[in-house]
């Protein structure tokens, strides 16, 4: 056989199978586009310079993760296509092609398809890179114009990594053709499971065990914050994955068997087209459905977490830095810098509010042992502050009852927010001690870092009582005087922050102010949601496509059944009723369980957030579910075409 004839066969085969390849082709192009964009942003000098190098490293890691996702998708999809085309491969051997020739034909076809996707993907990536850059700049809050330069390095890097994937799939095809027999190729599509009657006790035990493992993982996810945090995370992951596998492998199969037994095998048309095919393939699908469910949950948790961080950036930053600027604690040197700063604000015409805040610094300890004190230890260093001074500074704080205190500490709020109140804190010096009842644990700080420590807010009368009790000539050092500055016009915060940093840089000291912290956090969370969003989208497209390809294969395998049903007088609508039930299971169950897993995963990780993340997490999950359901509709559409075509 000449090379031209072999090439003709490749072109003819590609034309014939284009209806099967289009979604795979699109997913591959999408992966190439995103990888090329990430590589371009990774190597672009303007982006790297603007971000201080952090974005280049982030996109390098993102590119590796994307390559990992795309590689698994391509290999898995390729294995489905090889099984789907087993009869075609057998026919090639029947007409005289050797296994080597068949392997070359498949490799050449795969190379042409992948090369086309690579070329289109890089071309599309060049066109949309600017759009992605603008989106990134919007998310991280960068102002101004950044000129994105064409990167030969990005093109070369993209070509190399996707050539590696092509080589990997070519080896996969070569091994598959070499290992199969002609009879095996013709019978590959007929291979299925013959479900046996499950052993009652064993199946019931394993089915129940799967539910118990998932339930235990959910229960433990809400009780992870203790000295065994890392172990708890591993246990939650292990029990959830094991329980999910048992759910698909045993529990659902056992439930299907019970349904069939109750109906004495008479499932009816819809049951025969939904329950029966699922029972025959449940063992083979258990691994893939488990992997898809668990990875979907992780992806959802990642997306929801990233969006939640971005969504709550301003509130979280303000919780840590309640005042725009704060001076104090560095003696005369600090007073000099503070005067320079306020003088420059006056000179620039920037309006501000200036408020002195006095704090009483005392050693203390928790009197009750709790889950938090096991981590934090029983000792603490507290700043006692009058609520009246904070209210004068414009901080929205409630006044505690007389002789009680509110607890503030942004650094440990994630742990303390679940603490039972009231609890008692003992404050002391060498000469005196006093037990103070904490009635509420509040979010954030009431004074800025680095001065914050633990803050106990009390009413004005109690503050002066404590001051009279603890402070004498020997203890005057325990009084700290801070000066809070709040910029009255939010549009002038950037200018004020620039003045502040100019002075602090000249003073060679670590700088802390609200606006610069907000900008830095916005850049980090914006970059995170940009990367997480697109990695999640690639994963979603990949897993949705895999489920779609598997259902395409099953639809073709069941053509004879559909033809028989049509000949018996059943309409397309009658047949589609059972098929839709099946697709609701195939797509709906992994989605619902994945959503449930992600809810508890986000709940377990909620200690990282000081604000409520219900809204951003719900938005991320809704978008994910909507795209996932789209694949379900595509699959139902393919089945409908298949059923219509058989008659």
């Amino acid at each position: 056989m000449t090379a031209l004839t072999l090439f003709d066969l490749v072109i003819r085969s590609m034309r014939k199978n284009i209806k099967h390849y289009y979604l795979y082709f699109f997913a591959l192009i999408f992966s190439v586009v995103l990888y090329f964009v990430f590589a371009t942003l990774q190597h672009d000098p303007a982006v790297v310079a603007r971000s201080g190098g952090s974005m280049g490293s982030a996109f390098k890691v993102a590119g590796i993760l994307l390559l990992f996702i795309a590689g698994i998708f391509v290999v898995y999809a390729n294995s489905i296509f090889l099984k789907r085309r087993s009869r075609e491969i057998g026919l090639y051997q029947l007409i005289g092609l050797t296994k080597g020739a068949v392997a070359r034909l498949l490799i050449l076809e795969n190379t042409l398809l992948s090369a086309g996707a690579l070329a289109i993907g890089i071309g599309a990536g060049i066109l949309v890179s600017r759009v992605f850059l603008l989106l990134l700049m919007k998310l991280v809050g960068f102002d101004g114009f950044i000129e994105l330069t064409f990167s030969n390095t990005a093109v070369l890097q993209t070509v190399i990594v996707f050539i590696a994937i092509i080589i990997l799939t070519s080896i996969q095809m070569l091994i598959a053709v070499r290992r199969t027999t002609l009879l095996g190729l013709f019978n590959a599509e007929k291979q299925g499971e013959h479900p046996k009657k499950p052993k009652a006790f064993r199946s019931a035990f394993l089915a129940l065990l799967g539910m118990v493992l998932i339930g235990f993982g959910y229960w433990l996810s809400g009780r992870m914050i203790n000295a065994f945090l890392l172990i708890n995370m591993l246990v939650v992951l292990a029990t959830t994955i094991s329980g999910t596998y048992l759910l698909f492998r045993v529990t659902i199969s056992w439930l299907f068997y019970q349904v069939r037994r109750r109906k004495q095998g008479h499932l009816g048309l819809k049951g025969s087209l939904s329950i029966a095919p699922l029972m025959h393939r449940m063992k083979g699908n258990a691994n893939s459905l488990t992997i898809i469910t668990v990875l979907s949950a992780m992806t959802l948790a990642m997306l929801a977490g990233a969006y939640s961080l971005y969504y709550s950036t301003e509130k979280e930053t303000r919780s840590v830095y309640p005042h725009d600027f704060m001076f104090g604690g560095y003696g005369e040197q600090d007073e000099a810098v503070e005067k320079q700063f306020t003088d420059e604000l006056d000179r620039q015409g920037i309006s501000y509010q200036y408020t002195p805040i006095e704090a009483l610094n005392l050693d203390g300890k928790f009197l009750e042992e709790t889950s938090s004190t096991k981590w934090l230890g029983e000792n603490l260093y507290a700043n006692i502050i009058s609520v009246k001074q904070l209210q004068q500074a414009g901080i929205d704080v409630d006044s505690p009852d007389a002789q009680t205190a509110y607890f503030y500490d942004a650094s440990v709020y994630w742990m303390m927010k679940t603490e039972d109140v009231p609890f008692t804190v003992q404050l002391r010096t060498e000469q005196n001690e006093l037990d103070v009842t904490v009635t509420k644990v509040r979010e954030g700080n009431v004074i800025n870092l680095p001065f914050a420590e633990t803050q106990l807010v009390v009413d004005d009368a109690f503050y002066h009582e404590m001051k009279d009790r603890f402070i004498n000539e020997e203890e005057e050092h325990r009084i700290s005087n801070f000066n809070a500055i709040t910029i009255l016009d939010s549009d002038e915060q950037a200018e004020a922050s620039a003045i502040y940093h100019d002075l602090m840089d000249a003073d060679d000291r670590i700088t802390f102010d609200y606006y610069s912290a907000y900008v830095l956090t916005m850049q980090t969370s914006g970059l995170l949601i940009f990367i997480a969003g697109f990695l999640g989208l690639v994963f979603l497209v990949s897993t949705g496509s895999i489920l779609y390809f598997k259902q395409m294969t099953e639809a073709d395998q069941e053509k004879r059944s559909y033809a028989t049903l049509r000949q018996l007088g059943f309409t397309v609508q009658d047949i589609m009723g059972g098929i839709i039930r099946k697709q609701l299971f195939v797509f709906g169950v992994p989605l619902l369980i994945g959503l449930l897993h992600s809810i508890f995963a986000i709940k377990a990780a909620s200690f990282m957030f000081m604000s409520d993340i219900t809204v951003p997490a719900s938005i991320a999950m809704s978008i994910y579910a909507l795209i996932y359901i789209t694949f379900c509709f595509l699959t139902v559409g393919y089945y409908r075409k298949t059923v219509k075509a058989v008659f």
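Residues 289 and 590 are 7 Å apart (CA to CA). The chain has 21 helices and eight strands.
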